[in-house]
Amino acid sequence: MTGLKLPGTGLRIGVMSYAHVHAPGLVSLLKALGAEVLAADLDPARGASSSAAAGVEFVGDYEALLARDLDGVVICAENSEHRKLTERAAAAGAYVLTEKPLATSVEDGLAMIDACDRAGVGLMTAFPLRFAPQIITVAALAHGGRLGKIAALSGANPGSCPGGWFADKDLAGGGCVMDHTVHLADLMCWLTGAIPTTVYAQTNRMISPQHNIDTGGLVSITFSDGTIANIDASWSRLGHYPVWGGLTLEVVGTDGVVQADPFGEQMLATSQQTKWLRFGADPNREMVREFLTSIRERRQPTPSGRDGLLATAIALAAYRSDEQNAPVAVDLGNSAHA
């Protein structure tokens, strides 16, 4: 192990905003993987306190951050800010890892992809479940033909409403359907290799009506190869639940069926309250490792911005379907996936 370099060694990474709940964890992983981390935030008090807690340098605003000759940036701002910050980072020559969803519109997602392509930098969407060992095993079975032709997929991504800007449609782009459809939608696109064509969805506000946004949602998808899929994207974990959320996936093929629970490795602990303590591999660490390695190798990271666009387009189609109470076509704009 002597002399083994971490993937972030010698790389300078900027964190743009601490607005997202995952920001502190991503900062910690960047540091653990050897990167020099700088941070900026439009909220100076939040930025300074969060940076101090994480042990990283707080440089102030985004202009000051992008002037520091960055190799890459991690965008943890509100969803509605992703396009603007990606375009600024790309113009500064930095690779981009942005929290999911990629954007709040197909137009913005395409603009982000175009900005990074023109600048010759990579664009990665934060889908850590791609790196979960259980999902990697499912992908190996599916892509290796062990399941035969995939006919159907079903998944659930329950969680708790994070509150704050996550429940603000203008900033988040929607509620639970925007927040929790995209993880499973990405996995389904990846496993099938097919393009989503139509979506039918229903949402409600029954679970936590005080948020005045969709907190329950069921999304049905048809893919270009005829595969069908269902996603439960509800914020159905209430405050007293012993864990924040989770994700499960079932894949039905002509030659086999497989079920995966990436969050199933856990222990039950009870003191003042009951909690599920998770252990095992950390998919987020491997996601950050892939981002840093892609910078070092000057290649496109995976999952890419185009992967993020497919998942976002499914969530946006779900809202249109809910409004029209009918199936709708998935709008991919001028994407190469169309």
List keywords for this structure.
Gfo/Idh/MocA-like_OxRdtase_N, Dehydrogenase, Gfo/Idh/MocA_Oxidoreductases, six-stranded parallel beta sheet, seven-stranded mixed beta sheet, 10 helices, alpha/beta, 22% strand, 338 residues, 35% helix, GFO_IDH_MocA-like_dom, 2 domains, globular, Rossmann fold, Dihydrodipicolinate Reductase, domain 2
Strand order of the largest sheet: 12-11-7-10-9-8-15
CATH topology value of the largest domain: Dihydrodipicolinate Reductase, domain 2
Ranges where pLDDT stays below 50 over 5 or more residues in a row are: none
Q: Indicate the proportion of strand residues.
A: 15-25%
What is the radius of gyration?
20 Å
Number of domains: 2
Domain Gfo/Idh/MocA-like oxidoreductase N-terminal: 40-126
Protein name: Dehydrogenase
Pfam family, one: GFO_IDH_MocA
Domain GFO/IDH/MocA-like oxidoreductase: 137-258
What does this structure look like?
This is Dehydrogenase. It comes from Microlunatus panaciterrae. The structure is a single chain. The chain is an alpha/beta fold and 338 residues long. The chain folds into two domains: 12-128, 3-Layer(aba) Sandwich (Rossmann fold), CATH 3.40.50.720; 129-284 and 311-329, Dihydrodipicolinate Reductase, domain 2, CATH 3.30.360. The protein has ten helices and 15 strands. The chain has helices at 23-32, 44-54, 62-66, 82-91, 106-119, 133-143, 169-172, 176-192, 283-297, 305-324, and strands at 12-16, 36-40, 57-60, 72-75, 95-98, 123-125, 150-156, 196-204, 216-223, 228-232, 248-253, 257-260, 266-270, 274-278, 328-329. Strands 12-11-7-10-9-8-15 form a seven-stranded mixed sheet. A six-stranded parallel sheet has the order 3-2-1-4-5-6, sandwiched between helices. Strands 13-14 form a two-stranded antiparallel sheet. Strand 11 (248-253) and strand 12 form a beta hairpin. Helix 4 runs parallel beside helix 5 (106-119), helix 5 (106-119) packs antiparallel against helix 10 (305-324) and helix 6 (133-143) packs across helix 8 (176-192).
